[in-house]
Fold:
Amino acid sequence: MFCRVCRKHKQKVVRGTSQRPFIEVPCVRYRQDVLDGHMTSENHKTSLRIEASSTRLLTMEHAAIIGGFQCLYWLLKHEVAHHTKYPALLDLGKMLGCDYFSKLKIDKRTNYTSHYIIDEMVQILGQVIEEPYLKAIRTSQAVGLEIDETTDVSVIKQLDIHIRYLDNEGQLCSQFLDMVAIPDGTADTIVEAVRDVVDKKGIPVNRLYGLGTDGASVMTGNLHVIESK
Ligand SMILES: [Zn+2]
Structure:
């Protein structure tokens, strides 16, 4: 038999044989006193200490990542400017005793609070939240789209797409699907944007039965239907 911890954190041989039982070679003496002897040895105790501290480090890193996501989710839910307030919220966490947030700072350049990493985290949160809805939509018997044009805080045009679908119990559900920037408000652009979103999200177009718009001709077309692929 071997000792997993001693083999993992192998200590240097100070004196005696380099073929140590439990470590380099298996111990073949199946006796309680032999086991007890190994468990009280300096070698084993040192290995246990290293193992304990590395486990604690790992746990702190996990806590930091989970806590980071929770903080960001909180900001998003409360519509607080997440890019500017996320580092401040983590600082508050540290002040209140969440030491593990210090694990987010790897070195001078990597601290998991840059705009880039925040955007990536938002994307991950979005995917996790969206996944169960998309699953239900993809297996729905009937779906319908609702689209409308809007503009963001500047003047960039956006297309807001919602979806209505029947869940597996036949209940009608309504869900935000996507918000995409569009270069202009022409019918061709809108059709292309809707197709992109429908493809990307895996919406079952063969079960797409309805379209809701504000009735503007650019939305309904001259035949009052959207061309289906
Ligand atoms: Zn050991």
Observations:
- The pocket of zinc ion is lined by residues 3, 5-6, 22, 38, 44, 47 (CB under 6 Å).
- The longest helix spans residues 42-77.
- Strands lie at 143-151, 157-166, 172-181, 208-212.
